[in-house]
Amino acid sequence: MSRLRVGLVDSGLDHAALPAAVASCAFRVAGAHPGVVCAAEPQLDRLGHGSAVARVLLQRAPEVALFNAQVFDDQLTCSSSQVVAALNWLISEDVRLINLSFGLLRDCPELAGACARALGQGIVLVAASPARGAPVFPASYPGVIRATGDARCAPGELSRLDSSQADFGACVRADSSGPAGASIGCVHVTAAVAQYLLMEPDASLEQIHTHLAAVARFQGPEHRQH
User: What is the CATH number of domain 5-219?
Assistant: First the structure.
């Protein structure tokens, strides 16, 4: 049976995570023109974010084949054009699942179109959304699973939120010293999706939502003390 192909759109991989990548490509802005993006050789992860994301996924679903789409270099910012190029590459690589552990503040028709194309080909998109605040993209596009961090959740646990901000929450940390927050909660949700797809490779998006809701330990948003 072929391995589950999972795309990571992030800051790349370090030496430890790199062997898990079947293919890697970087997408960088060409000169001073943010709308022009060139494919390039990826660099090792300078930020540690993509490596932490990969580590969570591989701990929970070591059987997956990673497709590494690098859009962040020296800081966790990128253009929507870079994400569009990364998504188009991952679509061409026939991945089944894509983790997007970030959120862009500005809606972009080209990004919405790339997400729609991916969803139309049966690719599952899981994107980070903050626990509160303004909507971010691509999490806010129809069909994208919106994921965030939930302090109630230990590794391997989920919460079913169904809130205005997110569909599901998960553990906020990769480990004791790495990044934390919605971006890590996102990949914990992606790992749960990957585990399910390894058992049910033809599952629909509706079936995935139903499964995640059924296995969630917590139902409803976290109630914070003020």
Answer: 3.40.50.200
What pLDDT sits at residue 1?
A: 53
Write down the domain spans for the chain.
5-219
Greatest Cα pair distance, the chain, in angstroms, is 51
Of 53, 60, 62, whose CA–CA distance to 20 is shortest?
A: 62
CA 137 to chain centre: 12
Closest CA to 56 of 17, 21, 23: 17
Averaged pLDDT score across all residues of the chain: 94
Check: CB of residue 209 under 8 Å from CB of residue 145.
yes
Over residues 17-68, the pLDDT tens digits come to: 999 999 999 999 987 666 789 999 999 999 999 999 999 999 999 999 999 9
Q: What is the DSSP string of 27-60?
A: EEEETTEEEEEEEE-----SSSHHHHHHHHHHHH
pLDDT score of 226 more than 60: no
Residue type for 104, please?
L
Cβ neighbours around 19 below 10 Å, total:
8
Cis geometry, peptide bond prior to residue 155 (ω within 30 degrees of 0): no
Dist. CA 175–CA 153, nearest whole Å:
13
Q: Which residue in 168, 159, 171 sits closest to 139, CA to CA?
A: 168
